[in-house]
Amino acid sequence: MMTSVDTDLIRVLADPLRLRIVTLLARETLCTTHLVEETGARQTNLSNHLKVLREAGVVETEPCGRFTYYRLRPEVIEVLAGQFADLAETARATAEANVKRSCP
Fold first, then answer.
1. Strands, E, within 1-104: which ranges?
2. In angstroms, rounded to a whole number, what is the distance separating the alpha carbons of residues 95 and 15?
């Protein structure tokens, strides 16, 4: 049973705009222009957030002429989901066993 979650990835996904981008990219591969239209964010702000997502390994890019398309890497989300599932399983087992630390 694993009891830790990738805190760096959670920090990356905790930003509301980045989470919105990830949600949009789960549905389809989009270029920056599409993402600007969908989110209403400024292009420079959006590009900075996409850079963070790319460096964290959450998205990958695909050049297409003068545009860059972004695609979500579902395996990264699956790993995080698995870590949360393990954490929930640990919490359930702890509650069932009534495990608690005694006070000094």
1. 30-31, 59-64, 67-72
2. 31
DSSP, collapsed to helix, strand or coil, labels residue 100 as: coil
- Burial class of residue 76, CB neighbours in 10 A (0-12, 13-18, 19+): buried
* pLDDT the model gives residue 45: 97
pLDDT above 60: residue 66: yes
Other beta carbons less than 10 A from residue 50's beta carbon: 20
**Who wins on pLDDT, 6 or 29?**
29
Burial of residue 59 (number of CB atoms within 10 Å: 0-12, 13-18, 19+): buried
Least Cα distance to 80 among 22, 21, 20 occurs for: 22
All residues at 6 or more sequence positions from 94 whose CB lies less than 8 Å from its CB, including other chains: none
| Cβ contact 60:74 at 8 Å | no
List, edge to edge, every strand of the sheet that includes 67-72. 30-31, 67-72, 59-64
